[in-house]
Known about the structure:
- The chain is α/β, with parallel strands linked by helices and 239 residues long.
- It has a single domain (8-235), classed as Alpha-Beta Complex (Spore Coat Polysaccharide Biosynthesis Protein SpsA, Chain A).
- Helix content is 39%, strand content 18%.
- It contains eight helices and nine strands.
- It has helices spanning 23-33, 49-59, 74-86, 107-113, 136-153, 169-174, 186-197, 221-235, and strands at 10-16, 37-42, 63-67, 92-95, 119-123, 130-132, 165-168, 202-206, 208-210.
- The protein has a seven-stranded mixed β-sheet with strand order 3-2-1-4-7-5-8, sandwiched between helices. The chain has a two-stranded parallel sheet with strand order 6-9.
- Helix 7 (186-197) packs parallel to helix 8 (221-235).
- The longest helix has 18 residues, at 136-153.
- The chain is globular, with a radius of gyration of 17 Å.
- It starts with 9 loop residues before the first strand and ends with a helix.
Amino acid sequence: MSENGAAPRALVCVPTYNEAENVVPIVEAILAAAPVEVLVVDDGSPDGTGQLADAIAAREPRVHVLHREKKEGLGRAYLAAFAWALARPYDLVLEMDADFSHHPRYLAPMLARAREADLVLGSRYVEGGGTVNWGLGRRILSKGGSLYARTILGVPYRDLTGGFKCFRREVLEGIDLPTVQCTGYAFQIELTYRAHRRGFRVAEVPIVFEDRRVGKSKMSRRIVLEAIRKVWSIRGSTF
């Protein structure tokens, strides 16, 4: 991926909103887990998350902060992060949550798999993957949502709604990011589907998704059901 056989330069994008309790531990854990840089994308958190991220960046050159004025949805935060990354010479761009539900220990196997795949999905629903501290209703909703999207879109990937991903630069350059429709959790389905439609190689690496350690989950039944409804518009897109 990099010229002259150098190790690929990787950036982990971490969107935040009111993650003051998590931002320092997650950034430190990411840096300890893999040879990557980190971009914290803060949507104007009133609890001081952005200022804490700035303090880390001031002492750690591998950490960067992108401040946005207000909360506009997870998808818009990631699109801003991707634009920031593509304006710089990164070979790999990863996305993950700030609350340890996506554990940094999976970064190394995802980066390793990216040597042969264009898009690597951290997957809860392949052998070796799973979830921790979820109730039966949430497990059914999540797994059923992925099965539903997989069936409607005609793709083989088992975890379409997950937000732990590793993209080769070429994928983000090739899937026409400015025309992405979805901003919520359907955003994850749309990105994977676009990569599939463009012929990129998609692989899944097992992860165990652990419900957040501190703070309040931003996931709700409404968000998941909205994502499921969006699947039909994603299928009908002409990108």
